[in-house]
Amino acid sequence: MATAEVMLPSEPMSHKFEPLVRKELSTIAESLNTYSTFDPQRHLNFSPPSKVYSMGDLDLPEDTGVSQVAVSEPFPLFTEETIYRMRAEVLSDAVWDNCQYSSNLAQCQLRGFAAQYAPFVYDAWKNPETLAIISKIAGVDLVTAMDFEIGHINISVKSKQQKSEEHFAVVKRKTAETEEGNAECSREDDKPIVDWHTDSYPFVCVTMLSDCTSMIGGETALKTGNGKILKVRGPQMGCAVVLQGRYIEHQALRAVGAMERITMVTSFRPRSPSLPDDTVLTTVRAVSNLQELYFQFSEYRLEILEERIREQLKNMRETKRGRKHLDTKILKRFLKEQEDFLLHMNDELVLDEHVTAGRIDDSHILRDGNKTRSKKRTRLV
Q1: Residue 110 near residue 100 (C-beta atoms within 8 A)
Q2: 336/333 Cα distance (integer angstroms)
Q3: What is the pTM of this model?
Q4: For 95, which of 4, 57, 187, 371 is 20 to 30 Å away at the CA?
């Protein structure tokens, strides 16, 4: 999950956080008060990204993760009307009052609201044409990870004075660099909001809901296999970036010069049950309704297991009908893979009383050779 879009508090907030931007939505909300079904012909504004980086481009093994695709450059995805409708739903009283979370990583997030409170947002990400676009860019057939992770919102808001002061500091720094020929000055927009981390889900699509005209910085920094850093520029309003964030260490750099930054992050996983599912709940467990999160996580994982068992039974029966020898080694390998699958699932379901709301540990940060990258893209037997 891309928590790196939000400003860092030293402590989880004990009160509800309400940015001034909500007060500016009344006119928009009134003009869009009639629910409109998502229509891909009307609401999509897709143009392919100028570049899609592969795992090889990042000097990572090509068979890492579930696809060879690492990250895309920003690309147009939704129309202006679509963004306004999404904002009206996302910043509604119902969402704000029932779905707001904060943590030691993120001051203000809105989560788990789409299915109940934001039908337009929900339909937009569930639409087959939207899924086809994201899947094509990702290089693998994807579905939304689960309903709870549709349209996750990160919010950062600043006052006009803060915006002006930041912009002045950036201009002053760039002037100094030009005059002194020194590009090594400390840059506010090069400072991370969250340290190096990986996401909970295989793929994410990060969509910008704010006007970024005056924004400086805000790139996503990716750690390559040779230790170098690749920066991908942040998306403009209505544009998106697709990232295989579960398998790539990354951080979001601070953006300056804008009063608000609202990003929508929707998580995805492979549609095929034969592909690995390395989803973890580390970065989302403490900022979720555990009943919903655990139910949806368990439901789709058990459905994957069900499909795998059905396929294995089909293969065994076909072997029997063909009077062929049952390969015990293959069967035992299949059973061990499912055993590991269930063990991983069980480990992610931390008992409710052991979860501290708003407290996210650093186990999502990769260390010691990156154990997650050792998981290769292999189809299960």
Answers
A1: yes
A2: 5
A3: 0.84
A4: 4
